[in-house]
Write a structure and sequence with these properties.
Elements: H1 13-21, H2 29-39, E1 44-47, H3 54-65, E2 75-78, H4 82-95, E3 104-107, H5 113-121, E4 126-129, H6 131-140, E5 150-153, H7 156-161, H8 165-174, E6 181-186, H9 191-200, E7 205-207
Helix pairs in contact: 2-3, 3-4, 6-8
Bound molecules: adenosine monophosphate.
Length: 208
């Protein structure tokens, strides 16, 4: 496959600067396929393992779409573990290094909830969290979804293996369906994953 440079796509200069800063030159295969589709606003099903560059594959289009002037929560990324949530938050922070007014907050179980509530009150446009804790905040109304237009399910198969299916579906129900972009990444595509894609995605594009 021919390599695609990040500069070939209509990506904001601040993001391109960060990408260059991180030492990325060509897009990885999953990025070359996924970034244009996610940037076009499509729902995407991405079959990809870790280490393929999938975080930037959804992170770049996500940052491209965020309105920094709007202080409300606009995107939720769900991850199976605290470690992955921190890792994804770090990568997206690096990608947003030259953007102004973007707040990114990891929210996971095991961390003091009152500290999280305080941080959430400060306003974050992007939350990266584990399903159980995000669910908890939604019930407490310390996370509000009225302005959320993008949800990413990262390592969806792992989240299902860990018993998060009900939480994921409840979280998806909280997010306004009108204008919602739902992006799902998974290493494997067992039936429960396909059921979620059928139930919550519209005209999804599949990428391998
Ligand atoms: P991920 O699969 O998202 O966990 O990414 C794996 C690693 O590859 C991370 O350290 C990324 O920073 C790095 N990476 C992602 N995209 C690229 C790229 N296009 N070129 C070089 N490294 C990359």
């Amino acid at each position: 496959m021919e390599t695609v440079k990040f500069t070939e796509l209509d990506i904001k200069p601040e993001i391109l600067k960060a990408v260059a800063n991180m030492g990325f030159e060509a897009m990885s295969p999953i990025q070359a396929k996924a970034i244009p589709e996610v940037m076009a606003g499509h729902d995407v099903i991405g079959q990809a393992q870790t280490g393929t560059g999938k975080t930037a594959a959804f992170g770049i289009p996500l940052l491209q779409k965020i309105d920094p002037k709007n202080r409300k929560l606009q995107a939720i990324i769900l991850c199976p573990t605290r470690e992955l949530a921190i890792q994804v938050a770090d990568e997206i922070r690096r990608l947003s290094k030259f953007m102004h007014g973007i707040k990114i907050l990891p929210v996971y179980g095991g961390q003091d909830i009152n500290r999280q509530i305080k941080a959430l009150k400060g306003g974050a446009q992007i939350i990266i969290g584990t399903p159980g804790r995000v669910m908890d905040h939604l019930r407490r109304k310390t996370i509000r979804c009225e302005a959320v237009n993008t949800i990413v399910l990262d390592e969806a198969d792992e989240m299902l293996n860990m018993g998060f299916r009900e939480d994921i579906e409840t979280i998806l129900e909280y997010i306004p369906e009108e204008g919602r972009q739902t992006v799902l990444f998974s290493a494997t595509m067992p039936k429960p994953i396909l059921d979620i894609t059928k139930k919550y995605q519209h005209d999804a594009v599949t990428i391998k």
